[in-house]
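Hi L.,

You mentioned the student needs an example of a multi-chain input paired with its predicted structure. This one should do, with 744 residues in total across all chains.
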Amino acid sequence: MLGLDKKDTTLLIIVALLTLLAPFLLNPFPSDSAMAQFNAGYPDLMQRFVIFGIFAVGFNILFGLTGYLSFGHAAFLGIGSYSAVWMFKLFSYNVIPAIALSVIMAGLFSLLIGFISLRRSGIYFSILTLAFAQMSFALAYSVLSNPKFNLTNGETGLQVYADDPQMFHRDGLPDLPHLFGLSMRSTYTLDMGAWSFDFNAGYYLCAVIMMIVFYLAIRIFRSPFGMMLRAVKSNQQRMNYTGLNSRPYTLAAFVISGMYAGLAGGLMAAMDPLAGAERMQWTASGEVVLMTILGGTGTLIGPVLGAGFIKYFENIFSKINDSVLHGWFAFLPDGMEDFVVAVLHPFVGKGWHLTLGILFMLVVIFLPGGLVEGGTRLRNWFRGKRSGADDKPSGKTEPAE
Amino acid sequence: MDAILLQILNGLDKGSAYALIALGLTLIFGTLGVVNFAHGALFMIGAFCAVTLQRILNLSFESVDESQTDFLGNPLKVKTPYVEAWFGPEAGAVIIDWSVPLAVLFAIPIMLFVGYAMERGLIKFFYKRPHADQILVTFGLAIVLQEVIKYFFGANPIQTPPPEALRGSLDLGVMVGFDPNAIIYPIWRLVYFVFATVIIGGVFAFLQFTTFGMVVRAGMADRETVGLLGINIDRRFTIMFGIAAAVAGLAGVMYGPLNPPNYHMGMDFLVLSFVVVVVGGMGSLPGAVLAGFLLGILESFASTTWATTTIPGINQIIIYLVAIIILLTRPRGLMGRKGVMED
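Structure written out for the whole complex:
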């Protein structure tokens, strides 16, 4: 289907089902039960799942295929957000032109930054992208927000004010981002007995866009272009000696992944018309690296899983406080209960980043392939138990010398 | 003339911090070939060593002083730090006052141990892994260290004042013949610069004039051959990691009075230090020091009113701009050698 082989079609269908049915899947617990805090099916969080999924899929096209580790991709996300908000300010709240401009702007910037950064490889490349991203952050945070020339509105963040021109805004249209009149915030709530499910217009816009770009990513992975990028990762020197200039390929990959980031930024602004500089800080770039690694670098589904995983646990873990913990361990004897709560306390609530850091280190140390590799290992382990360990697939591919 | 001198002096303290951190980074990179993203966290831990020592010295007990009364007429409760009880009130007060310089002594063993534990416990397993993995695992470690410090010390900056005698400013201009008040310079910045020079000189002397340093330099040039000569180079490199950690830590200890330590100060410095290392040339120790001071001074020149009115915000981006220009024109940095990190 659509030029994909059977395996990829299945993958695409699974992703499509997961995203379209997410309001059901993420709300497995009745809304008034004690487990309801583990529900993730509310619009704001679902939107973040999908948006960061797009961001990570794009990042993976660069890092997973070519092996170039960029530490500055958050800059493109920020650029996308700023462009989208400017479209809202100047023209109208319609999201389509806003998203289009954010992709274009991110593409232009990534062309410029990539052209310079890709002259170097390895650690130099990482540091160059880091320097560019920090520079963009400094520009957005303070330099471009002076009274004479206010492009980013500094610390407050760029937002739409009542006295903005909004040339194409008419009275009938909602005063929030909308798709030809359909407000991004409009939500239909379906009550089924004890359960309630939210269907949000913004989420479905993001979900449809994610399916499209996920399909594009599959096509890129399977195309001759994708093979070229893999060749860059495994042995760039040999590629150069065979007379191929690898720079155009890596630059194309960089621009594509920058456009994915810009798209994510544009969607973020479309869901909530506000753009702030902190989105561009280098720790934000680190976050997308975390997502990609955690899910599985160089795999198709990995980055999406990683993004969902991190955003879900960020949300859930940071909500857990001591009283919740006491509730969980109430079955233990008193002294024991206090002890367990005291041990767990640093890792939840505000300490969520500690858990994330530890988790990330564990993944890099023991499971470099991320969640996807973990899944494969588990499956092999089960299969090995059943049919004997004689048919171990050799996952490693040695380059032929 | 005096204005130029003032800007150079202003750049020295930040430049010293950059140079010290970049020196440690380069030591680790040159010996072990590891890109350490947790180096900023080591700087931060050093600063918190000073905070810890300050808290230890201020541990006190309460006693009831019958001769004084509080506003309700009850006998006044007086808090006496243990140090003052043990060494007498005057000597005790001096010790508490000098807690930051004392923290240097306190921090050295701690930082050596932290560095040693980090290398043996984690970095050791990453020599054979790609640079990307090293970056990622040390990045994770930096997050963890930062969050641990935040858990114990909170998110707000903590003041670590310099000793009474070293507060205030000097009129340096008068000493070299300018008008009075032309160059006013805080004493602690001068102290920091001298301290940094001593540390940098110490590290270079250690590498240049001791047998241990000679072996380490030989190992940096050709690790395999040194190993074949029957020298346990890994153990020496581990010690070098400890020393690099101590250099970063000491930079942090002394930086506290200039800028109150908070848990993310390391991350703020880390990015700039990497830029410094790259500008200086990966793996070149003199390059790191030179680039550290150069960029510090450049930043200070860019912060003058003249520069910021000509190009608004130039002080925020000058370092990155310079780094990008240098990397494009001299890809190996100012003093980089051929063949380092080129694959």
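You could point out the following to them. The first strand of chain B starts at residue 60 and ends at 69. The mean pLDDT of chain B is 85.

Best wishes,
N.
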